[in-house]
């Protein structure tokens, strides 16, 4: 994945590369009834926040993070060094082999497409295996302009109902879902704001442009924090 060095410098410093809390993964494990010596993949794991959560919650499981960005893999490896059941590797999340009892993917299935990603992952699931993913959604077809402005760089974003239809189109059954609004986003943007401030002094023109872009995103979110959401979906093949 070819990303500007300045972008990588900023985002590789973050605990996670998108909205979410450790409790999201715990909720998914509890709702799916998962425990014991499982094989789990964190697809598009970023700097490894959810790999760490999953490894601590499932001490008998094998957690494998797969990430396409070398800088994120490099940041993830030391944070997982004291967790013998967790590893992260450079790889294509669209070409997983498995078999996995769970494929977890926080905010990353967007890069494949929901239907396309689920179809690609189906063959990587063990019998009875499940997928848990989060995806940006519109809460209604008629969202205020502030929400439209926020999602403008990602025009493929659709409603919750549309995402659930895509899951069905991929041949999966929805086990449960919940909206991620407010706190998961605030935690992410608070972390991003701290790193922006740390990098701002002496920033090059290219770095300043990246920092300005991140600040614009935060400002757009603050215009409608109660309307900007991810949908966390738990699904199994039918």
TrEMBL record:
Output the superkingdom of the source species.
Bacteria
UniProt keyword annotations, A-Z: Methyltransferase, Transferase
Keyword Amino-acid biosynthesis attributed: no
Gene Ontology biological process terms, A to Z: methylation
> Which one Pfam family would you cite for this protein?
Methyltransf_25
Per UniProt, residues of the Methyltransferase domain are 40-129
List the SUPFAM superfamilies.
S-adenosyl-L-methionine-dependent methyltransferases
- Alphabetized InterPro entries for the sequence: Methyltransf_25 (IPR041698), SAM-dependent_MTases_sf (IPR029063)
- Offer an example of a GO molecular function term for this protein: methyltransferase activity
* Name of protein: Methyltransferase domain-containing protein
- Origin organism of this chain? Salipiger abyssi
């Amino acid at each position: 994945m070819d990303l500007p060095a300045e972008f990588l410098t900023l985002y590789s410093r973050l605990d996670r590369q998108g909205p979410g809390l450790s409790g999201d993964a715990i909720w998914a494990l509890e709702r799916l009834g998962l425990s014991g010596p499982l094989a789990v993949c964190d697809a598009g794991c970023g700097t490894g926040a959810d790999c760490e959560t999953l490894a601590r919650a499932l001490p008998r499981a094998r957690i494998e993070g797969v990430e396409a960005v070398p800088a994120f893999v490099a940041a993830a490896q030391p944070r997982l060094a004291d967790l013998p059941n967790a590893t992260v590797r450079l790889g294509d999340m669209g070409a997983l082999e498995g078999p996995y009892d769970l494929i977890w993917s926080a905010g990353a299935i967007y890069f494949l497409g929901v239907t396309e990603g689920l179809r690609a992952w189906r063959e990587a699931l063990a019998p009875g295996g499940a997928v848990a993913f989060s995806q940006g959604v519109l809460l209604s077809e008629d969202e205020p302009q502030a929400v439209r402005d926020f999602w403008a760089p990602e025009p493929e974003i659709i409603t919750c109902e549309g995402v659930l239809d895509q899951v069905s189109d991929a041949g999966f059954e929805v086990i449960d879902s919940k909206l991620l609004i407010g706190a998961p986003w605030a935690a992410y943007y608070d972390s991003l704001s701290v790193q922006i401030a740390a990098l701002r002094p002496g920033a090059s023109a290219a770095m300043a442009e990246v920092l300005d872009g991140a600040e614009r995103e935060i400002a757009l979110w603050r215009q409608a924090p109660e309307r900007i959401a991810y949908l966390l979906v738990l699904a199994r093949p039918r």
